[in-house]
Amino acid sequence: MYREPQDIVINEYAAYQLNFLLFSANQQNLPLNSNSITAHWEHFEHEADIGIRGIAPTLAQAFEQAAVAMTAVVTDLDSVTAAKAVYIHCEAPDPELLLVSWINELIYEMSAHGLLFRRYQVAIENGALSATAFGETVDRQKHQPAVEIKGATFTALHVYRQADGMWLAQCVVDV
User: Fold this and answer.
1) What residues of the chain score a pLDDT lower than 70?
2) Which one of 19, 48, 56, 103 has the minimum C-beta count within 10 Å?
3) What is the CA angle 15-18-21, rounded to 5?
4) Helix H or strand E segment including 133
5) Strands, E, within 11-125: which ranges?
């Protein structure tokens, strides 16, 4: 049986408790839905190129997820194993330039050494990124690469903490 939505009515004490919880979370810069936060990646369309986006509870995890999104532009992630580890270090004066530098370092490693990466471990401190990328040598038959990424661009470049406390790191990659 269908029922019309009803207004929710809470008593004065419940309203006080809710306001206290919201105030406390805000004072500690905690996201209100912290129990349900998971890191993830997305693609977004941009004319002939494609956008990559990482969303996560920390800046480093958002960079990891943006890198996963980049690999997913090239191939099916499930086809890539984490057989090799490559260390990467880059620096930049702000998080947005650091994202572009990070993605371009990965693109260089992929192109120069014929690699695809499946997962990443990133640490960011004072404008310096240290990371390990885990992947394997490209096997054209196994991975069936869809495109070759030429580089990260400044188009739609954003790195910031959202109102829900999650970090977003995105840019468009030239394919």
Assistant:
1) 1-37
2) 48
3) 150
4) strand 128-137
5) 40-46, 49-56, 84-91, 115-125
* Tokens, residue 64: 């990891």
In three-state secondary structure terms, 1 is: coil
Token readout for 155 is 């188009």
* pLDDT at res. 10: 35
Q: Are 54 and 170 in contact (CB under 8 A)?
A: yes
With beta carbons less than 8 A apart as the criterion, state whether 129 and 89 touch: yes
DSSP conformation class of 10: -
Tokens of 30: 């905690």
Q: Rounded to 5 degrees, what are φ and ψ at 68?
A: -60, -40
Cβ(170)–Cβ(143) below 8 Å = no
Quote the pLDDT of residue 85: 98
Rounded Cα–Cα distance for residues 126 and 24 (Å): 28
Q: CA angle at residue 7 from 30 to 31, to 5 degrees?
A: 5
Dihedral in degrees, nearest 10, Cα atoms 85, 89, 90, 91: 150
Q: How many CB atoms lie within 10 A of CB 71?
A: 24
